[in-house]
Amino acid sequence: MVPTLEIAIENATEDAHVFHVAVETGDGLGQWASREIPPETREVVEREPDAKYDSVVIHGIVDDQTTRGEILDIDGTDRTEICPRMVFRYNTESGPAILQSSDIRC
Questions:
Q1: I want to staple 60 with a disulfide (CB 3.0 to 4.6 A). Which of 17, 18, 73, 88 is the partner?
Q2: Cα(32)–Cα(66) distance, rounded to whole angstroms?
Q3: How far is residue 30 from each of residues 42, 49, 96, measured CA to CA in Å?
Q4: Helix (H/G/I), strand (E/B), else coil: 79
C-alpha cells in the first residue's frame, strides 16, 4: 500500500485557477479534491490510496484541460518504501502537467 501521497498543486501563472485532482488505484477513482490556487503559489494536498494497488494514477483538471500521471517504480525498491511526491503544475505556455518527485528516504 502506498503511504500518504503528497500532491503539490502549483499555479505558475499570473491568475488564480481552480485545480481538481483525484487519485485512481485498481479499486477505482477516489474522491476529487478542488482548490482555488492564487497566482505563483504552491499548495500541498495529501491523499491516501484505499488499498493494495497495481498502479496509482493522478488525474488533474484545470481550466477544462486534463492531465494524468502514473507513479513510477524506483528500480529495485519496494513500493511501501517509497514516499511518493507528485507535482500538478500549470502554466499557460505548456498547459497542465503531473510530475513525479518520489523519495526512498521516507
A1: 88
A2: 13
A3: 22, 8, 20
A4: helix
Contact 100, 7 (CB under 8 A): no
User: Amino acid identity, residue 96?
Assistant: P
Q: Do 102 and 75 meet the contact criterion of CB atoms below 8 Å apart?
A: no
- Backbone phi, psi, residue 102, to 5°: -75, 155
Query: What residues have CB less than 8 Å from 75, skipping those under 6 apart?
Result: none
Residue pLDDT, tens place only, 22-80:
988 888 888 899 999 999 999 999 877 655 666 788 999 999 999 999 876 544 455 55
> What is the DSSP secondary structure assignment for residue 83, as one 8-state letter?
B
What are the Cα distances from residue 48, in Å, to 26, 28, 83? 14, 13, 12
Per-residue pLDDT tens over the stretch 2-12: 467 889 999 99
DSSP 45-77: EEE---S--S--EEEEEETTEEEEEEPPPPTT-
